[in-house]
Amino acid sequence: MDAKTQSGTGRRPAAQRAPHNGQRSDHEGDHADAGIDLPVVGHLTFESAGFLVGLGVAAAVGVLEWPVVAAVGIGYALARKEATHHGQRPN
């Protein structure tokens, strides 16, 4: 039996594993573009879609009035557009 089988963990000894310094730059940004593509709005991240759905639910339930929801939604869309225009990652 080898050391892998004897230890019972199923892990390779540290000398055989790839070095890891705590930085995962090889996977950085893998999920940055994850989201939903909508015909009129364009690409929305899941975070943005969740915010807008929550805003819509608050309006439908009556927690917020529709003019407030419209103002917040338009302001959020303009902020996303401005952030994208300046090369920043929109939320």
Topology of helices and strands:
Blueprint: H1 3-7, E1 35-38, E2 42-45, H2 46-61, H3 66-85
Antiparallel strand pairs: 1-2
Short description:
The protein has 91 residues and is mainly α.
Strands, total number = 2
How are the strands ordered across the major sheet? 1-2
Order of helices and strands: HEEHH
Q: Which secondary-structure class do the elements indicate?
A: mainly alpha
Can you walk through the features of this model?
- The chain has 91 residues and is mostly helical.
- The chain has a domain at 34-85.
- The protein is 45% helix and 9% strand.
- The chain is built from 3 helices and 2 strands, in the order αββαα.
- The chain has helices at 3-7, 46-61, 66-85, and strands spanning 35-38, 42-45.
- The protein starts with a helix and ends in a 6-residue tail after the last helix.
Question: What attributes characterize this protein structure?
Answer:
two-stranded antiparallel ribbon; 91 residues; 2 strands; 3 helices; mainly alpha; 9% strand
